[in-house]
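Handout, section 4.2: multi-component inputs.
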Amino acid sequence: MSVFASWEVARRAAASQWIVLGAFCALGGAFFKAQIVDNESNRRSSDKNHLRNVSLEPPRGDILDRHDSVIAGNYTGYSIRLLATSVDSLRAVLGRLDALVPGDTVDAETIVRRWQAARYQPALVYASASFSAVSTLEEHRVSIPGLVIQREPRRRYPDSNAVAHLVGYVGEVGPDALQRNLFPGAQSGEIVGKQGLELEYDSLLRGHRGIRFVEVDVKQRMIRDAPSTASLPPTAGKIVRTTIDLNLQRFVDSMWRAEPYLTNKRGAIVAMTPDGQILAYASFPSYNPNDFIGRIDQDTWDAVNNDPNKPLINRVIRAAYPPASPFKLAIAAMALRRGYTMDSRMRDPCTGSYQYGNRQYKCWQAKGHGLLTLREAIAKSCDVFFYQLGQQLGADSILAAAHDLGFGERSGVDLDNEHAGTLLSSAKAYVNSKGVSTWGNGEVLNLAIGQGHHTETLMNMVSFYAALAGDGIKRTPRIIQGRAPIQTHDFKLTPNQLKDLRLAMEDVVNQGTATGNLAGEVGLKEYHIAGKTGSAQVTGQEQMGWFIAFAPADAPKIVVGIAVEEGIHGALVAKYPVRTIVRFLTGKSVKADFGTVTEDLQHTASDTGAPVVTPPAVKRP
Amino acid sequence: MLLLVVLLLTAFGLLILYSTGQTDLVGRIRGSWLAQPQWLWVKQLIYLVIGIGLAAAMYRMSFRLLEWATPWLYGLSLAMLALTLVIGHGAGAAKSEKSWIGFGGVNVQPVEFAKLATILMLARWFAARREPPLTLRGLLQPIMIALIPALLVLKQPDLGSAIVFAGILFGVMYWAAVPVSLLVFLASPVLSLVLSFSTAAWSIWMVILFLLLLYWRPFFLEGIAVYLANSAMGVLALVVWARMQEHVRSRIISFLNPSAYSQAGGFQAVESRVAIGSGGWFGTGLTLGPQKRSGYIPERATDFIFAVVGEELGLLGVLVALGLFVALLFALVRIARQASDPYASLIVFGVASLVFTHVFENVGMTISIMPITGIPLPFFSAGGSFLMALAIGLGMSFRAAEEGRAASYVES
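Output:
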């Protein structure tokens, strides 16, 4: 057997051993390449595989009132997030989640989009899950790969509806807002302010996200916190202190909801100090901002959004109404600046109507007021007096002076999206889209009584009255504490002129248009309450009612204005600002006989100014 | 020497198998406690006891008896492979492959025993001849001996085992002194097939083949046949590719470019390489590898167990393991060299070829220098059938070593 002769075999054995050695050297070389040469990149890949960073949401800064009571605070909630390797596996797990936690319908598309925005981070599924949902999910953790449950600070508004339009609410930052960088520093999935103060001071309130590294397995199940990797704690947002008096805010809210007359009405009420610090700020109907945090369920949204009374509209700054009779104080101020005095009289006495051109312009009181001084005309809100005064001042002069007094523009309050009202600059500006002038000779009469082509927000009107109640300088109202007021308009009225106007407004309450309806109200005399009623015609609706008041008249501390849609007229709503004032000045609740409103509508309906000429319908929500 | 290496490898393997059970994965407990990953090493220990029994039995068995029984064993194993195709089922990593047969609750992979039977049959065929065949035609019978089981397992389909049959065939032929030129020619069509994916590489290969044919001067017709076969393979490759099964195709793609298919077939290759590569010189420490703990190493107890060695024990552990395998192979080659009769010698070299093919293919695939095929790593991978087959092969080797030693005393 020559082929198995020992030297032949030894040769083949040696050769085969060389082959083995060569092959294993090749293997060893490949391992050397992978383990030593490429060690760094492979180690990084390994880390990337099993380490995930989970963002830690910072507690949002509290929003406090002037006495440090909490308007917006936080509580500990649970967020549920999912880690996934692919869209398919994410969808599969979402399906299982949905089966485990019914009732909480998962909007799969949104979650898939969140996941696609940051694939190696857990996608938010429920921003605030109920405790029972969390326990159910914990029980089934094994069958839900990638489940990340975290305790997270959640926003809460303890006074819910009462502060809705003031604080607004928070929600997840939208893809559009992210793209346009409306919230600098915000990352996908982060909670930002959507409305109100939450939106206005978002950059202060938001804080900075922290990062926590967790180890996951191949199915993205969380194993533990990564021990070797430092986590970055979140930075809490800053506290925002406001000028709001939460007790007054609550009073205003409960008053509106308890008064049968107001309960189902739309409108707004705002209170501020003469230098513009907002004390209370409410729009009605309201909504519960707590419902809007995180994910609002469809039914609640539909209910709020489809409500014919449109509770989402912030009627303090987003609804503009004809200023009506409260504007007569602006006309009076213009007159005083032009040399008129409080004792000035017009040529024609009021006989219930006023002949101008070939038309009769009626006074709200058909029997007429007779010959009045300016002071009396303010108290009685005599339209005929102001028709004549308006004529004497002239249309362009009124328009220019109105702008000079801060009308037709934003008050500048520190809330987003304020409406600027409408007020043209001169008669020449009355041009429609076809280039034809819409100016009519009667327009000057309408302007003089706050009707015509002119609308204002409640905020701007109250801001004007605050200036009258103060030193005659209009300042931007503000809600945040510590911000210096910006003087926007100097009325250039002497202290005596201001005092005269206040006395006339005190007459409104004591012997004028509001007197009848304020009979029996507590504290009228004691606190020297002054105010002005108004009723504005709005097309297709009942007249809206204005009442803007301040007190004490000799040294005002608070200005309160109310605007009630379909409030019929100002005198009917006068008592509410009065009660608010009394409540603020006494520091305790006024016992209001909420159940016994016995208004004689026929009597009172003929009590306040109501021009015959219909103004252009301007109501911009 | 052989015994020491085998003991060390067995201990090393069990240690790593224990480590593969130590993970952070959570899952529902299915089946008995013995079926759980963390107790796999205990299960393997039970197989090991049986394996030692089998090895002892083989150690006692005469090669003459074995030679007599060889055709029967070979026939039985072919029948079993055929049966597998009919009643076989998949398991674990190879769910789509029909490679298992149930025997009263115990699942057996007939292919592992068929490998041994093929070694025996080839050894018997070559031992019966004074001279090895010197033509390709003369090699037709041994080729068929290996090709039939290879085709049967390819049908399962189990590409890895088919490659092992090729490794055994070439190993035994080489040890039986078949001229190297014939082996090259025999292997050339396969090489041509592989290279045909790159036109340039294939062209160069065809030129080299032409020169080799001129140099070695085989019979004229055979030379023509070899060249034609190579050409045909190059041309057929694309057709074969188009008809290939999806999972085989994706495996080949992922072998050629693992990172491009990280989500599909290449996932295993990439994660295995990442695990090994993150080990560095000394590894993360036994049981502590994060890739393994978090489940990123695929099939960590079976096909990719060597990735655990790489991750947890680093290059050092890898070199120790590879060194042990080299020592084992050297010891087997020495036994084959010193064996007293050709049949035993061929068997031992066949077992060495089997071990070599398994180790090179398995370890190579964990580091992406070989395509992914699901064949076990000797001494490491969990699994009874292969352990038994290995024990039988080693038992025969111990006897051959014993007989060789006895014969050398007589001679000297």
